[in-house]
Design a protein that fits this description.
single chain; 126 residues; 3 helical TM bundles of succinate and fumarate reductases; 5 helices
Length: 126
């Protein structure tokens, strides 16, 4: 038999503190995506009508390759965080929720890795 009141039991549950960290990271990635996204849009528009060799030479420059990798990491992480919030808010079954979150994390990671490998291949002249 437990002697604590209902209020005492609820206070004991508390917060994990993970929500504020998740919120901050999502905001930081959103802010980082502003200049990276603008750079990426202008870079992509500059290649309209050019050939692959010109793009390969551009992507082989260390500054452009670095910015592409930063854009990829930031964009996929931000997207994964956003999809996780939607899943946590709107999927109510725990098994489906956990499976969906793990699947989203795995797919986001795999897409990001494949994009980064493509950039590195261009950078190293592959």
């Amino acid at each position: 038999m437990e002697m604590r009141s209902t209020l005492g039991r609820v206070r004991g549950l508390g917060s994990t503190g993970d929500g504020s960290h998740h919120w901050w990271i999502q905001r930081l990635t959103a802010v980082a995506l502003i200049p990276l996204g603008i750079w990426f849009i202008f870079a992509a528009l500059s290649f309209v009508g050019t050939d692959y060799a010109q793009f390969k030479a551009w992507a082989g420059h260390h500054g452009n390759a670095l910015l592409l990798v930063l854009f990829i990491i930031t964009a996929f992480h931000h997207a994964q965080l956003g999809m996780q919030v939607v899943i946590e808010d709107y999927i109510h079954g725990e098994a489906v929720k956990i499976t969906s979150i793990l699947l989203i994390k795995f797919v986001s990671f795999m897409f990001a890795v494949s994009c980064i490998l493509a950039v590195l291949r261009l950078y190293f002249g592959g």
